[in-house]
Design a protein that fits this description.
This protein is of the alpha+beta class and 112 residues long. It is built from three helices and four strands, in the order βαβααββ.
Length: 112
Protein backbone atom coordinates (compact mmCIF):
# COMPACT_ATOMS: atom_id res chain seq x y z
CA UNK A 1 0.00 0.00 0.00
CA UNK A 2 1.36 3.38 -1.00
CA UNK A 3 0.43 6.97 -0.49
CA UNK A 4 0.16 10.19 -2.42
CA UNK A 5 -0.08 13.86 -1.54
CA UNK A 6 -3.41 15.68 -1.64
CA UNK A 7 -3.79 19.36 -0.76
CA UNK A 8 -6.39 22.12 -0.78
CA UNK A 9 -6.15 25.90 -0.61
CA UNK A 10 -8.84 28.17 0.84
CA UNK A 11 -8.87 31.94 0.63
CA UNK A 12 -10.12 34.19 3.41
CA UNK A 13 -9.73 34.68 7.14
CA UNK A 14 -10.58 31.59 9.19
CA UNK A 15 -10.67 30.63 12.84
CA UNK A 16 -9.14 27.26 13.71
CA UNK A 17 -12.65 25.81 13.94
CA UNK A 18 -13.59 27.16 10.51
CA UNK A 19 -10.44 25.64 9.01
CA UNK A 20 -11.29 22.29 10.58
CA UNK A 21 -14.83 22.55 9.15
CA UNK A 22 -13.39 23.36 5.71
CA UNK A 23 -11.07 20.35 5.99
CA UNK A 24 -14.00 18.08 6.90
CA UNK A 25 -15.98 19.40 3.92
CA UNK A 26 -12.99 18.60 1.67
CA UNK A 27 -12.79 15.08 3.14
CA UNK A 28 -16.49 14.53 2.39
CA UNK A 29 -16.11 15.95 -1.12
CA UNK A 30 -13.13 13.69 -1.87
CA UNK A 31 -14.99 10.64 -0.49
CA UNK A 32 -18.04 11.44 -2.61
CA UNK A 33 -15.99 12.03 -5.77
CA UNK A 34 -14.13 8.74 -5.27
CA UNK A 35 -17.24 6.69 -4.50
CA UNK A 36 -16.38 6.05 -0.81
CA UNK A 37 -14.25 3.12 -2.03
CA UNK A 38 -11.21 3.60 0.21
CA UNK A 39 -7.52 3.71 -0.65
CA UNK A 40 -8.01 6.71 -2.95
CA UNK A 41 -4.82 8.61 -2.12
CA UNK A 42 -6.96 11.64 -1.27
CA UNK A 43 -8.05 13.38 1.92
CA UNK A 44 -10.98 10.96 1.93
CA UNK A 45 -8.53 8.61 3.70
CA UNK A 46 -7.77 11.11 6.48
CA UNK A 47 -7.82 9.69 9.98
CA UNK A 48 -9.17 13.01 11.29
CA UNK A 49 -5.83 14.31 12.57
CA UNK A 50 -5.67 18.02 11.67
CA UNK A 51 -2.76 20.13 12.89
CA UNK A 52 -2.44 23.87 12.24
CA UNK A 53 1.11 25.22 12.24
CA UNK A 54 1.53 28.48 14.17
CA UNK A 55 3.83 30.13 11.61
CA UNK A 56 2.14 32.32 8.97
CA UNK A 57 3.67 32.31 5.49
CA UNK A 58 4.03 35.05 2.86
CA UNK A 59 1.96 33.33 0.17
CA UNK A 60 0.08 30.13 -0.68
CA UNK A 61 3.06 28.54 -2.45
CA UNK A 62 5.32 28.99 0.58
CA UNK A 63 2.61 27.55 2.85
CA UNK A 64 2.09 24.60 0.48
CA UNK A 65 5.81 23.85 0.35
CA UNK A 66 5.98 23.84 4.16
CA UNK A 67 2.96 21.53 4.46
CA UNK A 68 4.45 19.14 1.89
CA UNK A 69 7.87 19.15 3.59
CA UNK A 70 6.31 18.47 7.00
CA UNK A 71 3.85 15.71 6.10
CA UNK A 72 2.87 13.97 9.32
CA UNK A 73 4.79 16.38 11.55
CA UNK A 74 3.27 18.29 14.40
CA UNK A 75 6.42 20.35 14.90
CA UNK A 76 9.51 21.31 12.92
CA UNK A 77 11.11 17.91 13.59
CA UNK A 78 9.60 14.43 13.28
CA UNK A 79 9.28 12.37 16.42
CA UNK A 80 9.85 8.60 16.39
CA UNK A 81 6.07 8.02 16.26
CA UNK A 82 5.66 10.45 13.37
CA UNK A 83 8.38 8.67 11.38
CA UNK A 84 6.34 5.48 11.36
CA UNK A 85 2.77 6.75 11.15
CA UNK A 86 2.62 9.82 8.94
CA UNK A 87 0.04 8.68 6.38
CA UNK A 88 -3.46 10.06 6.59
CA UNK A 89 -2.55 12.97 8.90
CA UNK A 90 -3.44 16.46 7.68
CA UNK A 91 -1.41 19.61 8.35
CA UNK A 92 -2.45 23.19 7.74
CA UNK A 93 -0.51 26.44 7.23
CA UNK A 94 -1.95 29.95 7.01
CA UNK A 95 -0.65 32.66 4.71
CA UNK A 96 -0.99 36.41 4.32
CA UNK A 97 0.23 37.94 1.04
CA UNK A 98 1.96 41.32 0.80
CA UNK A 99 -1.28 42.85 -0.47
CA UNK A 100 -3.17 41.54 2.57
CA UNK A 101 -4.96 38.52 1.09
CA UNK A 102 -5.30 35.70 3.60
CA UNK A 103 -5.90 32.00 3.36
CA UNK A 104 -4.63 28.57 4.28
CA UNK A 105 -3.29 25.41 2.68
CA UNK A 106 -3.90 21.97 4.13
CA UNK A 107 -3.02 18.46 3.09
CA UNK A 108 -0.91 15.40 3.65
CA UNK A 109 0.03 11.97 2.36
CA UNK A 110 -2.93 9.57 2.05
CA UNK A 111 -3.22 5.82 1.49
CA UNK A 112 -4.04 4.32 -1.88
Amino acid sequence: MGGQTDTACVNGTFTDEQLYDSFNATVEERAYNCGHGGYTGTMAESNGTFYIFTKTFDDANEALKYVEEHVGCHSNEKTILEMFSTKNWTNCARFTTKDGKKGAVYGGNYSY
